[in-house]
TrEMBL record:
Organism superkingdom: Bacteria
Residue ranges of the TM segments: 33-51, 58-77, 83-101, 108-124, 155-174, 204-222, 242-265, 277-296
InterPro entries xrefs: AAA+_ATPase, ABC_AA/LPS_Transport, ABC_transp_permease, ABC_transporter-like_ATP-bd, ABC_transporter-like_CS, BCA_ABC_TP_C, LivM-like, P-loop_NTPase
The name this protein goes by in its record: Branched-chain amino acid ABC transporter ATP-binding protein/permease
SMART domains (UniProt xref): AAA (SM00382)
Family to which this protein belongs: Belongs to the ABC transporter superfamily.
Length: 606
């Protein structure tokens, strides 16, 4: 039923517009809104979803408009062929500009977009060939056969049709594999990278996508107005487009349409009233600028969230789909999977990890323990490619890795969890786990936009569902991940790591925050994984938990590997006792307070 709402709404607006009920002024206004909605839609994806604030989107509208103006006026090309050229030229420029821009972070990113927004404005205004500040006029109307689309109402059918199609494509893109990767970047890049996402690549994809939507808007604008000049493509227009996206609801598709409608209607009203109050001048620009700053500070969710509420979890046709995903071949038990050889990491003057050497074999659980600050997390980060070793090697299946990055480790089959859960709070629990299966899918942005990824998405969904069942989280599968307790978040991280189909999982304090029954379930799951041939490397501060599970323990202290062996050996190792307790074992035996009962710690367990 829900799927018919949009086409029906689209047809209603269309029928209303062409019926003669609306004045030609109103029809022209709706045309403007539809064209601006296209640009705002791109910004919804770029800014709202991808977290890249852009003030320069009007420049891409200009590129699209000028490309079609030059090709149709100067070279007599068909406007329809010029549409393809506008998209390609703008997309190409976006690719070049984006390659630099998307790597900027913090306030440098919006500053960068302002810089190229201004540059393009002056470029349009200074090139003789583009008509300088007078621009290009005499742009031909769009034609269908011999019929020229010159009527406002006819044009509206086209703009609404284009907008409707763009909405469908954008929705498809966002709900697919690439869209999920983009959405996952809102809460930081660590988790996404650990599951094979290349943040700058997916950011570049949405940057180019948003620019292409702007180019189509520019093309529609040029053939609607029949002339172009630099004015509508400057930084003022860029700020207005951004305001539309933020006001309507950055991140929400219909927020773009709502925002565009509100800003254009408001501008229309302000332009009629303000000159009476303040005299001639573009005072609405000041009001829009102030509104944008206030919105960015106080109500960045926008109005659509207030009207439509929280975004529903993406629904799938079946709760579990068909689990047909292929799995990696499991190496024989005790095959050395991950091996650290003489790893050293120096931070400034501090040696955080010094000559650490151990291996994690298939079908074994290895515990990495040590007091606070011993170097466990640093070792984890070295093993997963987050940090680069100062010296030493990380090997996988006996081969020293030349380049190690989180994405490469994920590709090899290393799944991980984080000491502080790195969860996408706005995404549903099941979508968080689907991110773990990112590398098990292949569909790119174009396939997703055209809806050709549904089969694959069902498989990824089925994988995620299975992992939620394994971790006992299927009841909260559709809840936003931000509503889970700490214990559930830890289990969610385990489920996400398993969705990768890992040969080895690295778990950083998986039992912290879990209740006794949850710990028991987790222990059962880890034993099951060991049985299946998966290797587990676990940092854990719950000594009972880790000692009861680990086949082998490595103990670090001040970055040095001070002991290794089985639980019994470690429990009675004097160097370990000394590291934890700061004194000879006998001293503590005498008062009955041994470290692994959880009492008296020198620097705390972790
Ligand atoms: N990025 C960094 N820059 C500088 N020093 C760091 C950095 N990361 C870790 N350290 C230092 O390296 C040492 C080892 O830290 P690490 O976090 O690896 O220990 P840990 O055993 O995981 O401790 P905890 O159990 O408290 O998490 C500490 O002294 C820490 O302050």
């Amino acid at each position: 039923m829900k799927r018919f709402v949009e086409p029906v709404a689209f047809l209603l607006v269309l029928a209303l517009a062409v019926s003669g009920v609306l004045s030609s002024f109103t029809v022209a206004l709706i045309n403007d809104i539809a064209i601006a909605s296209l640009v705002a839609l791109g910004l919804v994806v770029l800014t709202g979803v991808g977290g890249m604030t852009s003030f320069g989107q009007a420049a891409f509208v200009g590129l699209g408009a000028y490309t079609t103006a030059v090709l149709t006026v100067r070279y007599g090309l068909s406007p329809w062929l010029a549409l393809a050229a506008s998209i390609v030229v703008t997309g190409g420029c976006a690719l070049l500009i984006g390659a630099v821009t998307v790597r900027l972070s913090g306030h440098y990113l919006p500053l960068g977009t302002i810089a190229w927004g201004i540059s393009f404005y002056y470029l349009f205004g200074n090139i003789e060939w583009l008509g300088r500040h007078d621009g290009i006029s005499g742009i031909p109307p769009l034609t269908l056969g011999n019929h020229a689309i010159t009527g406002q109402k006819e044009y509206l059918i086209l703009t609404l049709g284009v907008l409707f199609t763009a909405i469908l494509l954008t929705r498809n893109l966002l709900r697919g594999r690439v869209g999920r990767a983009v959405r996952s970047l809102r809460d930081g890049t660590h988790a996404a990278e650990a599951f094979g996402v290349h943040p700058s690549t997916v950011k570049l994809i949405v940057f180019v996508f948003a620019a292409m939507l702007a180019a189509i808007a520019g093309w529609l604008y040029a053939h609607f107005q029949r002339s172009v000049s630099p004015g509508p493509f400057g930084i003022t227009a860029g700020t207005e487009y951004l305001l539309m996206a933020v006001l309507g609801g950055a991140g929400r598709i219909y927020g773009a349409v709502l925002g565009a409608a509100l800003v254009i209607l408001l501008r229309d009203q302000l332009q009629s009233w303000l000159p009476h109050l303040l005299g001639a001048g573009n005072y609405e620009t000041i009001i829009f600028g102030a509104a944008l700053v206030l919105l960015l500070r106080g109500a960045s969710d926008g109005l659509w969230a207030k009207i439509a509420g929280r975004e529903a979890a993406i629904a799938f046709d079946s709760a579990s789909g068909v689990l047909t995903a292929s799995r990696k071949e499991r190496p024989a038990k005790d095959t050395k999977l991950l091996e650290l050889r003489h790893l050293k990491k120096v931070f400034g003057g501090l040696i955080a990890v010094n000559d650490v050497t151990f291996a994690v074999p298939a079908g074994r659980i290895v515990g990495l323990i040590g007091p606070n600050g011993a170097g466990k997390s640093t070792t984890f980060n070295l093993a997963t490619g987050v940090l680069t070793p100062t010296s030493g090697e990380v090997c996988f299946c006996d081969e020293a890795l030349k380049t190690i990055s989180p994405q490469e480790m994920a590709r090899l089959g290393v799944g991980r969890s984080f000491q502080h859960p790195e969860i996408m709070t706005d995404m549903s629990v099941v979508e968080n786990v689907m991110l773990g299966a990112h590398l098990r899918g292949h569909a790119g942005a174009v396939k997703a936009m055209l809806g050709l990824d549904r089969k694959e998405e069902l498989v990824l969904h089925a994988i995620a569902w299975r992992m939620l069942q394994r971790t006992g989280l299927e009841k909260v599968a559709l809840s936003p991940a931000g509503t889970l307790s700490l214990g559930q978040l830890r289990l969610l991280e385990v489920a996400r790591a398993l969705a990768l189909d890992p040969l080895i999982v690295l778990l950083d304090e998986p039992a912290a925050g879990l209740r006794v029954c949850e710990k028991r379930e987790l222990a059962r799951l880890l034993r099951e994984l060991r049985q299946e041939g998966v290797a587990v490397l676990m940092v854990e501060h719950d000594m009972d938990f880790v000692m009861s599970l680990a086949d082998h323990l490595i103990v670090l202290d001040f970055g040095n590997q001070i002991a290794e062996g089985d639980a019994n050996g470690i429990r009675s190792n004097p160097r370990v006792l000394d590291a934890y307790l700061g004194g000879p074992r006998e001293q503590f035996l005498a008062i009955g307070k041994l470290p692994f009962g959880g009492l008296r710690i020198r620097r705390g367990f972790a």
